[in-house]
Design brief:
Layout: E1 8-13, H1 20-29, H2 55-67, H3 78-90, H4 95-108, E2 113-117, H5 120-134, E3 139-140, E4 143-146, H6 149-159, H7 163-169, H8 173-194, E5 198-201, H9 202-205, H10 211-222, H11 229-235, H12 253-275
Parallel strand pairs: 1-2, 1-3, 1-4, 4-5
Helix pairs in contact: 1-11, 3-5, 6-8, 8-12
């Protein structure tokens, strides 16, 4: 068995409906271990190509959100999610939880580079970072994907998961969706300030002119090989994307500021990667 301090752990982080499933599968094709295929969440009507989420990690996240009083799908009001973020910062994994996760990883994730994807992990990242470090994983390399707030909001509303929360709290769905985007991506911005991360954008991945560079850049950051790059690129299907907006279409100064800050960081990474001659 490979030593934990020799393994690279890649949490894939992004807001719901931001292309995390597409991105995760592409990295999986490049060699990122996600666990036994039978442990992965199946496809659904709103994600026909599959979610590529390991049910074990998904269930851990759902249970934590339940315990701290947040909707288990990760959608809630601004006040509820901000309160949850404060609780998560103070939450230490119990010995039972540490043992449960340790046993699962030991039994199922033996590849030198493994990871998982669940958008809820954005909210719970401090918990996972503490836990992984307690287990002896010292090389943690998050990969972040960001999507335009308007496109994300449109996709969330079409999915139908916001209707009950919006009705209960008397909030327009569009307003709720944009607030969710701001909370998740504000947290992603903070994560990228606290730990080295790969940072990319949905529109770069679905663009044939930049997709290869983005996956090669991510491979260089995470340590993945690029032998199966053509297969990974074939997986990325722009035809599955139904909303295309520009950041100029966003009528929210706070969302624009968050988006532009993340974009500036990602462009800086791209420039440094190019200057280092990796591509």
């Amino acid at each position: 068995m490979i030593n934990k301090n020799e393994q690279i752990v890649v949490p894939i982080l992004g807001m719901h409906r931001s292309g995390t499933s597409m991105f995760t599968r592409a990295l999986n094709i490049l060699g990122l271990e996600l666990g036994d295929p039978s442990h992965l969440l199946g496809a659904a009507e709103d994600n026909k190509n599959g979610f590529w989420e390991n049910v074990f990690f998904l269930n851990i996240n759902i249970e934590i959100l339940r315990r701290i009083g947040v909707n288990t799908n990760g959608f809630d009001t601004t006040d509820a999610l901000l309160g949850a973020a404060q609780k998560i910062e103070l939450l230490d994994p119990s010995l039972d939880t540490i043992d449960l996760i340790n046993r699962y990883i030991n039994d199922n994730l033996e590849h030198p580079i493994w990871g998982w994807k669940d958008p809820r992990t954005v909210l719970l990242f401090p918990f996972w970072l503490k836990l992984l470090m307690k287990l002896g994983y010292n090389d943690i390399r998050p990969a972040i994907i960001v999507r335009n707030p308007i496109d994300t909001a449109h996709s969330l509303i079409k999915q139908g998961h916001l209707k009950d929360i919006a009705t209960k709290n008397k909030i327009p769905e569009k307003h709720l969706a944009l607030n969710l985007w701001k909370i998740y991506n504000r947290i992603l911005n903070l994560i990228s300030n606290s730990i080295p991360c790969f940072l990319s954008f949905h529109e770069w991945l679905i663009n044939p002119d930049s997709a290869r560079d983005e996956l090669e850049r991510c491979s260089a950051f995470t340590g993945l090989e690029t032998d199966n790059m053509d297969a990974a690129l074939k997986w990325i299907d722009p035809r599955m994307v139904h909303h295309h907006s520009n950041i100029g279409d966003v009528c929210d100064d706070d969302a624009i500021r968050i988006y532009e800050e993340l974009m500036a960081k990602a462009n800086k990474q791209r420039n440094e990667w190019g200057q280092n001659g990796i591509n």
